[in-house]
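Dear Dr. H.,

I hope your travels went smoothly. While you were away I took the liberty of generating a structure for the chain from your last submission, since the lab meeting agenda had it listed for discussion. I wanted you to have the full record in hand beforehand rather than looking at slides cold. The sequence, exactly as received, is reproduced here:
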Amino acid sequence: MNKIVGDNLKMLRKSKNMSQEEVADRLKISQSAYARMERGESTSWTIHFNKICQMFDITLEELVRRGVGDSVYENLIGTELQTESEALHFYRKIIRQYELQIEDLKMIISELNKGKN
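The corresponding predicted structure, in token form, is as follows:
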């Protein structure tokens, strides 16, 4: 769960063009504490979930749901990409989101396989 939330936090933060430090400041925590949340190493996001949801204009369900980054990209699809550079950056973000989802699925499969043995 922490990995999913961490990945979502990272995608949401980047979609708002915010630094980790900016988000940490709004949450009134250190940048390193916020970085641990994004890496999935901390459960402290649970203490701050109301502020996080308000900051990114999402629900708690969206924060903990796998693939929240997809909705971020859906909102961007309607915008006109002005340059080839913007388009390339946009598609790299989409690819990275799917790479993160693949990593999560591999981890889930690994855990399920451990349970069978």
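Two observations you may find useful: Residues 38 and 45 are 9 Å apart (CA to CA). Residues 84-116 form the longest helix (33 residues).

With kind regards,
E. W.
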